[in-house]
Design a protein that fits this description.
Layout lengths: L2 E4 L5 H9 L3 H8 L12 H8 L10 E4 L8
Parallel strand pairs: 1-2
């Protein structure tokens, strides 16, 4: 089984967090090497790859799609 590990993505739910948690939006942008929040469309390429025959021999992978958030400390 493989999975996508999404980072901070612009959704209705994250809009609530941005509004209710002071500094969240700026903090995420500052820590993310891509310099932005993700968009739902950013997940598409990874999802298509995992659904395709190109990933037939890939097993047990957890693929972060987070603009680099997880690797920056």
């Amino acid at each position: 089984m493989n999975c996508i590990l999404p980072g901070f993505i612009n959704t209705d739910l994250s809009a609530d967090g941005k509004r209710d948690i002071p500094g969240l939006e700026e903090g995420v942008k500052a820590r993310t090497p891509a310099g932005r929040w993700g968009e739902p469309e950013d997940m598409a390429g990874t999802a298509i790859f995992l659904a395709s025959r190109a990933s037939d021999f890939l097993t047990g992978a957890a693929i972060p799609v987070d603009g680099g958030f997880a690797v920056k400390v």
